[in-house]
Design a protein that fits this description.
By secondary structure, the chain is α/β, with parallel strands linked by helices. It is built from 14 helices and 16 strands.
Length: 422
Amino acid sequence: MPRRFLLSALAFAIPLCAQAAILKITVDDMIHPISDEFIGRALTEAARTNDDAVVIELRTPGGLIDSTRSIVEKIMTSRVPVIVYVAPAGARAASAGFFILESADIAAMAPGTNTGAAHPVVFGEKMDEIMKTKMENDAAAFMRTIAARRGRNVTVAESAVRESKSFTEDEALHQKLIDVVAPNLPSLFQAFDGKTLRRYNGSTTTLHLVGKPLRTYDMSLKERLLSKLMDPNIAFLLFALGALAIFAEFNHPGAVVPGVVGVISILLALFALNLLPTRYASLALLLLAFTLFALEAKYATHGVLGIGGIICMIFGALFLVDGPIPEMRVHLLTALIVSVPIGLIAIFLTTLVLRARRVRVATGREGMIGEIGVARTQLGPEGKVFVHGELWNAVAPTSLPEGTRVRVSGVDGLHLRVEPAE
């Protein structure tokens, strides 16, 4: 019995030991709600499996302040120690990335990297000095709290917010913004193995990093797709193509496929725009653009309305997302490449429809109207006429002799109404 109990205990203990590892994730994108969700899920997973630490390999140009605050909160309150490592060489942790780097239990950078430039920015909006000062003070206070809690240089960290200062890895280490410069993860683990950390809540923990397996944790398929949608250029492209598809469906009712594709594209775009800092007045500019395209095709203003529509679409795209960094705005090149062809295609489609509606019907009853025929009998006022290769009963407004050229003016059942062609 003791032997069986010992074997059972060992069998239970071995999986628990195997679970202890270092969880590694990579954040190589702008900071937005999907990044927040991914980091939160990774920290929850690390706590569930009792991992020794979580490594966030970070490279980002920045992102949204609300998502940044949420990520910092998750890192500060994480049950598992968090290491933020800016890598590889050439990478940066700018703007929002600087806040995340400073919030880590261990802040590390690889050689050839940089961080900082964390001044709050609002694009496309002129703020008064009071509002600008409030935003700056709020971000500076947030940084002071983070740096003080992590025992880092509060004054220098605050200067990255107020003065938009940036730092190389050596400058950051010298000014006590980070804890180590490491060329790779093994050297980073070696530098802190056995060290005791004071956590955000005042407790202490000893790190055991060397020799522990490194477990990579990836984004889910849903997170990868949504992360791509969070690119404002992709969101604008989806919205523009979706609007063009629905525009085509209205011009060719019953085609179905353009309508389905258009609705799906616009819903995906609106989902992304709902999570981004979107200016909804810009959506009105995009809708106005398609209205001008239709009017150009109808009234043929020699390109005036069409050019106006393209200009509306370009400006609507440029101001569509009010991102704090250039990477979170629609690029001018994207706006031009998308707007000009879509404007020309929309005008072309509408022109085809209007021309088709102006063409006289050439088949059926309506196709008989206007046809020229010959009276085969005297029309007094009824008789026979030969029209379109067929002999018809006809009624004329006055008596007409046989052989008179007549024109069809209407159709009543099986009788034609005719009048003298001359």
